[in-house]
Write a structure and sequence with these properties.
single chain, 107 residues, six-stranded mixed sheet
Length: 107
């Protein structure tokens, strides 16, 4: 499933018990809802949502809020959220806000 807006694309693909979500572009006040709507855990067999954020070119506090909304929804559905890959911008935002430990990173 793919969700798009100007400057943001969110693609979610099922891979066994994982949902791999690739986010490309800018996550800001105008596009944060696209990220939120693009991550849907509607199958109890999904145990992990793997967020791929290495192609995020901009993220602000609205984007951070969207990530937290997605995390809350996924955890509420009984799955885990991991950051499979991140851009330096995402890393920096999570570090500065003290939320780096809120998301588990894969190795």
């Amino acid at each position: 499933m793919s969700t798009e807006a100007p400057h943001l694309s969110v693609d979610a693909e099922r891979a066994d018990d994982r949902l791999v979500v690739t986010v490309i572009g800018e996550v800001n006040a105008a596009t944060a809802s696209v990220l939120e709507e693009g991550v849907v855990v509607d199958d109890p067999a999904i145990t992990t949502v793997d967020l791929r954020l290495d192609q995020v070119t901009f993220i602000d506090s609205s984007g951070l809020r969207a990530l937290l909304v997605v995390r809350e929804r996924v955890v509420g559905a009984g799955a885990a959220v991991v950051l499979g890959s991140t851009s330096p911008l995402v890393d920096r935002l999570l570090e500065v806000t003290g939320l780096a430990d809120t998301f588990s990173a894969t190795s």
